[in-house]
């Protein structure tokens, strides 16, 4: 398979942009999708047990809750588009997910002793995630960071199963 290089370093050809997009989408974007959504499920699953059904209002900082309401109203103004999800956790990005995890780490640590390592891992992929999310071409470091974080997901989910935490999709 030929090596795909950043189209911005060459003369314009639409096929170069296509190749870059297919490469990033096929190798990285789906891993970021899996990472962020798995983190959402883990946060929801643990906080449901630790706090209860209304964990969002207890565990999430007021500025984040205010911003999610603003995003929900903006989404409601365009009903022709897909819904971002019924739970407000689908209206936050990786930065806010990290902050929720960090602020409530005392509730995660008894179930996931590696919580602090997960915080480091997630912080470590934020720049790479933003590169890919904003349609830029990642370098080898970024690709390796995303791949490494993705490879850790089975262990995270095994930890929940080992603690008999029901997996609860928000």
Reading the helices and strands in chain order gives: HHHHHHHH
* Residue share in helix: 55-70%
Query: How many domains in all?
Result: 1
Strand count, sense and barrel status of the largest sheet are: none
How many helices? The count is 8
Share in β-strands: under 5%
Q: Tell me, briefly, the overall form.
A: globular
In terms of per-residue confidence, which ranges show pLDDT below 50 for 5 or more consecutive residues?
A: none
User: What is the residue-mean pLDDT, rounded to a whole number?
Assistant: 95
Gyration radius, in Å: 18 Å
Q: Report the count of strand segments.
A: 0
Span between termini: 39 Å
Structural class: mainly alpha
How is this structure best described in words?
The protein is mostly helical. The protein has one domain (7-162). It has eight helices and no strands. It has helices at 14-50, 55-59, 62-76, 94-103, 105-108, 115-133, 140-151, 153-162. α1 runs parallel beside α4. The radius of gyration is 18 Å and the shape is globular. The model has no long low-confidence stretch (mean pLDDT 95).
Structure in a nutshell:
The protein has 170 residues and is mainly alpha-helical.
């Amino acid at each position: 398979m030929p090596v795909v290089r950043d189209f911005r370093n060459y003369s314009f050809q639409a096929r170069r942009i296509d190749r870059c997009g297919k490469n990033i989408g096929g190798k990285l974007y789906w891993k970021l999708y899996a990472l962020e959504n798995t983190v959402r499920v883990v946060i929801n699953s643990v906080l449901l047990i630790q706090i209860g059904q209304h964990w969002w209002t207890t565990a999430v900082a007021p500025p984040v809750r205010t911003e999610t309401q603003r995003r929900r109203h903006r989404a409601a103004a365009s009903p022709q588009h897909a819904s971002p999800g019924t739970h407000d956790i689908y209206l936050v990005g990786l930065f806010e997910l990290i902050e929720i995890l960090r602020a409530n780490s005392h509730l995660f640590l008894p179930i996931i002793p590696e919580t602090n390592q997960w915080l480091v891992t997630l912080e470590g992929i934020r720049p790479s995630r933003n590169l890919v999310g904003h349609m830029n071409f990642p370098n080898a470091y970024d690709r390796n960071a995303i791949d490494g974080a993705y490879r850790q997901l089975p262990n995270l989910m095994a930890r929940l199963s080992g603690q008999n935490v029901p997996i609860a999709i928000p």
